[in-house]
């Protein structure tokens, strides 16, 4: 079968690798100039670095198995992170349950309630039972108003912007569950994984395998139209129009709604009901270390970013020649900040950084990279399960598989790869 795969991220490349290994004639399209999607990488010093921060958890078993299958297991390292939270102009440790017990901004009673709330998340089995409750309601019910107002409200606002009050309790429950299960038997110790040379090695290896199987990878070749006639699909891109037997679309449902032709209005409207948040991520190559921690959560509405991540405080084997710091902000595409030029964003972010770290000097900056993407985070609102489109669309032979469909899980490489494996298996079963 001749198959067009739209999107050269983790899902598209995984599907392309597996389908091409079964003898299918695969072409993978992507509008960007490099593979990997949100795991795409740039060269920094003598090494490669993701354009958006990445690590994996010990329970990301499908991704770990894939790394092993691709012969990259020797590049996978495991590290113990140090996490803090910035709140009320102060930095507090925020890695272990003991840190929570010592978290002075909350009253002792609120600390106990918050700890029990996180622990209770492990025992919620029916996520559908809480998806019609907002995260705000659920946190206040189990952790109290002080806990919500001080910690979670600014974080939800920084993550989901104008939609923060609509987020389902399922989303925050899954976050608690994920972090708890990544600790294993020792709840005081978390381990995070990183691939030396960056995770792009995975996706470059997949691309190599697709090409070895006589498939194609078309970068800088955005798809502008998909249509069907006489049981054949016609994919129009910047390089021209080609004919296929099937199409697998791995970008957001809304993106599909704008390129597919011949689909009913009701279906197109349903695809547009799932919103995404954009992301602005600034990478600083510094001559000096900014902080002794890996991960800082910023619970302060006045600061223009929600995360400060000193990547080189986690990853020990690298050749960057600099201390690497990510500053990340999620926001709605309608937010005026998203449309600002790079220099304005840099100025705003640096001002926020100086507030948290008064010792920081701009002459530490050796290089600055500003990256932005429109479809970074699905908005998991109440009643989300009712919005999720089926993988098999009403147009026979057209499949949709994206980060919006992995619910109740949240976005991540492990689930993106799982989606690629699942669609390739389903495709082979349908077309046997």
Keywords:
432 residues, 20 strands, globular, 5-stranded parallel beta sheet, 32% helix, alpha/beta
Description:
- The model has no long low-confidence stretch (mean pLDDT 94).
- Helix 1 links the parallel strand 1 and strand 2.
- By secondary structure, this protein is α/β, with parallel strands linked by helices.
- 32% of the residues lie in helices and 25% in strands.
- The N and C termini lie close together (11 Å).
- Helix 5 packs across helix 7.
- It folds into three domains: 167 residues, FAD/NAD(P)-binding domain, CATH 3.50.50; 86 residues, no CATH class; 103 residues, Polyamine Oxidase, Chain A, domain 2 (Alpha-Beta Complex).
- The chain is globular and about 65 Å long.
- The strands form five sheets. A seven-stranded mixed sheet has the order 8-7-16-17-18-15-19, sandwiched between helices. A five-stranded parallel sheet has the order 10-2-1-14-20, with helices on one face. Strands 5-9-6 form a three-stranded antiparallel sheet, with no helix packed on it.
- The chain is built from twelve helices and 20 strands.
Strand order of the biggest β-sheet: 8-7-16-17-18-15-19
Class based on secondary structure composition and strand pairing: alpha/beta
CATH level 1 class label of the largest domain: Alpha Beta
Number of domains: 3
What characteristic shape results from the CA principal axes? Answer: globular
Please state the CA-atom Rg, rounded to the nearest Å. Answer: 22 Å
- Name the CATH superfamily assignment of the largest domain: FAD/NAD(P)-binding domain
Distance between the termini: 11 Å
Low-confidence stretches: none
The mean pLDDT is 94
Quaternary state reads single chain
Can you count the beta strands?
A: 20
CATH domain topology of the largest domain: FAD/NAD(P)-binding domain
């Amino acid at each position: 079968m001749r198959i067009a795969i739209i999107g050269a991220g983790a899902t598209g490349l995984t599907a392309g690798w597996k389908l091409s290994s079964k003898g299918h004639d695969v072409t993978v399209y992507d509008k960007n100039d490099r593979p990997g999607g949100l795991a795409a990488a740039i060269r920094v010093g003598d090494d490669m670095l993701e354009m958006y921060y990445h690590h994996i958890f010990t329970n990301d078993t499908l991704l770990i198995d894939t790394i092993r299958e691709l012969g990259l297991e020797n590049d996978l390292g495991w590290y113990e992170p140090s996490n803090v939270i910035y709140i009320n102009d102060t930095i507090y440790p925020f890695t272990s349950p003991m840190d929570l017990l010592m978290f002075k901004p909350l009253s002792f009673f609120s600390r106990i309630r918050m700890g029990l709330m996180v622990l209770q998340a492990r025992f919620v089995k029916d996520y559908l039972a809480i998806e019609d409750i907002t995260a705000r309601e659920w946190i206040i019910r189990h952790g109290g108003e002080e806990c919500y107002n001080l910690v979670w409200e600014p974080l939800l606002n920084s993550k989901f912007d104008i939609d923060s009050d609509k987020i389902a309790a399922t989303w925050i429950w899954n976050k608690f569950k994920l972090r708890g299960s990544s600790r294993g038997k020792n709840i005081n110790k978390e381990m995070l994984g990183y691939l030396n040379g960056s995770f792009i090695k995975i996706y470059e290896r997949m691309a190599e395998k697709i090409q070895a199987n006589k498939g194609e990878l078309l970068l800088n070749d955005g798809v502008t139209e998909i249509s069907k006639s006489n049981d054949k699909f016609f994919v129009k891109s910047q390089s021209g129009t080609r004919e296929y037997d099937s199409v697998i679309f791995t970008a957001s449902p809304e993106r599909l709604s704008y390129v597919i032709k011949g689909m009913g209005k009701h279906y197109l409207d349903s695809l547009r009901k799932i919103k995404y948040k954009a992301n602005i991520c600034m990478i600083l190559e510094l001559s000096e270390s900014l902080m002794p921690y890996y991960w800082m959560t910023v619970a302060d509405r006045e600061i223009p970013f929600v995360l400060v991540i000193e990547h080189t405080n986690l990853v020990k084997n690298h050749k960057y020649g600099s201390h690497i710091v990510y500053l990340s902000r999620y926001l709605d595409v309608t937010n005026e900040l998203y449309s600002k030029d790079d220099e304005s964003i840099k100025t705003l972010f640096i001002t926020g950084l100086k507030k948290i770290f008064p010792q920081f000097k701009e002459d530490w900056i050796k290089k600055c990279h500003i990256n932005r993407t429109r479809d970074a985070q699905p908005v998991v609102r109440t009643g989300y399960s009712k919005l999720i489109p089926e993988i098999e669309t009403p147009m026979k032979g057209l499949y949709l598989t994206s980060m919006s469909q992995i619910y109740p899980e949240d976005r991540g490489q492990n689930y993106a790869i799982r989606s690629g494996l699942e669609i390739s298996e389903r495709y082979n079963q349908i077309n046997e």
